[in-house]
Amino acid sequence: MNLSLSKRIQEKFPTMSTNHRKLAEFILQHYDKAAFLTALELGQTLGMSESTVIRFATMLGYDGYPQLNKALQDMIKNKITTVERHRLSLKEDSNVLEWVFHTDMENLRKTMADVNVQDFRSAVQEIIQARNIYIISLRSATALGQFLHFYLHLLLKNSRLISGTGTLFEELLAVGPKDVVIGISFPRYSRQTIEGLKYAQEKGAHTLAITDSVTSPLSQYSKRLLVAHSHMGSFIDSFVAPLSLINALIIAVGTAESEKTTQALSQLEDIWARFKTYYSE
């Protein structure tokens, strides 16, 4: 079983016990700390027994905790940067502006390290080949969905944004195997985004989740999973890394369809000039 630790957790997460889910979430969010803890120390940190931690390692397919610990240490090789060290050293009364900027930088760094490049490339091709693209983004994630929809509709002319809960399933009624459905949600996850992605999966559509972790409830209903870290340690999530990932997705689609993109943008420039869309002296 030559799978990465995060991939093993993703595959096993739906059937994990409550304690094992707590372990999985702690490891994914704090792998830099967990890598230097014994099985006993990790259990004590989360209020559970050493044997529970050992059973967790076995459940993931490792021979024991030492092998799981080695996988954790492999995750952090070359990943601890001056940005992270600085962030960890900040005190509660530190300048908020500086703290937010450094937290956003750390979310970007982790996203770069953890994003599944193969899923990203496959998602780009599926978006290009799709009959229709449906984007489900509700509540605070609405802004992310609007941004993605704006550019995909300019480039491909077949994007539909679902940002209202009342008509979600009516708008997905015609979805099928030739379509792509993109679900965007971050903690606290929108229940209807999850249900919409599940419905699309049942209808045979290509499903893509943009979310914060492989343990996200969206992951079990997504064919492709793109992880963007959003932890802020405050009452809001950080959407800097998710927006950067969406930027990359849009640019990759535009680059892959270069001729179509050039034609679409040329037509738009003519319309914008004719109707004076943009301010000029």
Q: Roughly what percent helix?
A: 55-70%
The outline comes out as: elongated
Give the distance, in angstroms, between the N- and C-terminal Cα atoms.
64 Å
Structural class: alpha/beta
Looking across the biggest beta sheet, what order are the strands in?
2-1-3-4-5
The CATH homologous superfamily of the largest domain is named: Glucose-6-phosphate isomerase like protein, domain 1
Number of helices: 14
- How many discrete domains? 3
CATH topology of the largest domain: Rossmann fold
Q: Beta-strand percentage?
A: 5-15%
Order of helices and strands: HHHHHHHHHEHEHEHEEHH
Largest sheet: 5 strands, parallel
Tally of strands: 5
Cα-based radius of gyration, to the nearest Å: 21 Å
Arithmetic mean pLDDT:
88
Task: Report the uncertain regions.
Answer: 88-92
At CATH level 2, the architecture of the largest domain is: 3-Layer(aba) Sandwich
CATH class category name of the largest domain: Alpha Beta
Domain SIS: 123-261
GO molecular function: carbohydrate derivative binding; DNA binding; DNA-binding transcription factor activity
Protein name: SIS domain-containing protein
GO biological process, one term: carbohydrate derivative metabolic process
Could you explain how this protein is built, in words?
Residues 3-79 form the HTH rpiR-type domain. One of its GO terms (biological process) is carbohydrate derivative metabolic process. This is SIS domain-containing protein. Keywords: DNA-binding, Transcription, Transcription regulation. InterPro entries: Homeodomain-like_sf, HTH_RpiR, RpiR-like, RpiR-like_SIS, SIS_dom, SIS_dom_sf, WH-like_DNA-bd_sf. It is a single chain. The protein is α/β, with parallel strands linked by helices. It folds into 3 domains: 5-76, Arc Repressor Mutant, subunit A (Orthogonal Bundle), CATH 1.10.10.10; 82-114; 117-269, Rossmann fold. The chain contains 14 helices and 5 strands. The chain has helices spanning 5-12, 18-29, 31-34, 39-46, 50-59, 65-76, 82-89, 96-114, 117-129, 142-156, 168-171, 191-202, 240-256, 258-274, and strands at 133-137, 159-162, 180-184, 206-211, 224-227. A 5-stranded parallel sheet has the order 2-1-3-4-5, with helices on both faces. Strand 3 (180-184), helix 12 and strand 4 (206-211) form a beta-alpha-beta unit. Helix 7 crosses helix 8 (96-114). The radius of gyration is 21 Å and the shape is elongated. The model is unreliable at 88-92 (pLDDT under 50).
